[in-house]
Amino acid sequence: MEFLLMLYADHSQFEKLSQAQASEAMAAYGAYTGALQNAGVLRGSNRLRPTPTATTVRVKAGKTEVLNGPYAETREQLGGYYLIDVADLDAALTWAARCPGASHGIVEVRPVWPRSDM
Amino acid sequence: MTKHWLETARTAEMSARASYGKLIAFLSARTRDVAGAEDALSEAFAAALAEWPVRGVPDSPDAWLLTVARRRLVDAARRRRLDEATSEQLQWLTEPWTDDDELLAIPDRRLGLLFACAHPGIEAGVRAPLMLQVVLGFDAATIASAFLVAPATMGQRLARAKAKIRQAGIAFEVPERDALNERLDAVLDAIYTAYAEGWSDPQGVDPHRRNLAEEAIWLGRLITSLLPDQSEALGLLSLMLHTHARREARRAPSGHYVPLAEQDPAQWDLVMIDEAEALLARANRTGASGRYHLEAAVQSAHAVRARAGRADWAAIERLYDALCVLTGSPVAALNRAVAVAETRGLAAGLSALDALAADERLQNYQPYWAARADLLARSGALEAAGRAYERAIGLESDPAVRDFLQQRAKHHCANAVRPGCLRYRG
What we know:
The complex is a heterodimer.
Chain A: E1 2-9, H1 11-15, H2 19-38, E2 42-47, E3 55-60, E4 63-68, E5 77-85, H3 89-98, H4 101-104, E6 106-111
Antiparallel strand pairs in A: 1-5, 1-6, 2-5, 3-4
Chain B: H1 2-29, H2 34-55, H3 61-79, H4 84-94, H5 100-104, H6 110-117, H7 124-134, H8 140-147, H9 151-167, H10 177-199, H11 207-226, H12 231-244, H13 270-286, H14 291-303, H15 305-308, H16 313-327, H17 330-344, H18 346-354, H19 366-378, H20 382-394, H21 399-414
């Protein structure tokens, strides 16, 4: 079963880290990605650029509306994702707990809706 | 008025908490309807919070709660369609309690309830959560967090398990001699599972998790008090107390993780260790030797460091030899390899670890990679150690342990001939 692990965090906190702390955090993510690969469950992952680089697009009443910034003005913002393929939700939650994002912020785990099931 | 209410509420809560399992067990023993008992008791509890501040706390709070809960059960039974089973229950529920002693000394049916929770007909993964809910009163969301399961899922599993107890007629009974050992193993396994989950928050930051370890110990004490001659029950309690005694030493004041080999024995709870040793001695006297008994003996051999300055690694190796034969567990084999490194040298330890490399069960087990990394680093194979540390780091969910592993990896890498042996894979 495929699950999307969405990493939410307050990026202003990340900016406050020292060079050493930041590189250690990145190393932790690298190790986590490696562990997923070695377990054969990683289907994809990416880090996203911070929210100032986001642009929101909406079409309302036939008109396209383009705005600067992310959809929701929350303190925690989406910073990256992991797409994994595991046996069940319990397994997905175990991996989510290992993600450094779970201690820096929050990891939302959502099952992919398979086309065959729609 | 508010202060008085708060005090009464506290008394009500303490009474309910301490007696929760006893009351649930008593209320559901005959009907086998655990969910119904929980509902009735929670209504009785609400009634207590309303009445006691006005009428005063009764002499026997337990008996009061029980009487009210029973009344609720009768009402609920009457509201259901009257069939034979229900009318039988109704009869038992409405029997007058003439004996005052019976009111004050509620028979302890908790042991039967624990065995019911660990009945073979109950799915293995839900036994520990079930015990935590029905004997200790934890809610599904708290239990779900501890076991890394979605709260809705945990709620469903618990409801299914309670339905199974009711519909399949699982009795609240201590099994007969032949079946006792086997069934007791299931009960002890469930208690240990709860303890292990509670253990993962040694700093006690999460108030629910910290209590989980202590609740598991409480259940262990309950079992040994009710079955004082069972070596596995004594062994389990000894094991839990030994590891719990070291909880303060597992974290430095800064919050950093401190592995066992580096802990300061002065921070171990020596009184608790003494209690654990006494239980182990009792287990030894029974002459039997099961898994928990052996594991307690391993902890005892580690605790020796407080007196002798070094753990008794020869004993630890022998004990894990026995555990490997008894359980076939890859974790026991891993721990044995670590002990071999201490008794016969790094090469022998690494060789023992290599024998486990093909075991799939260890591939995603952090301690396996951490042990590999440590032995490789100590024998000078720094690049291989770096890769093993990388694996361990990626598998660890506790940020303090992850941090510790990263520091270790950096420390060894700093001494590597080739710089940059830890590469970030983007």
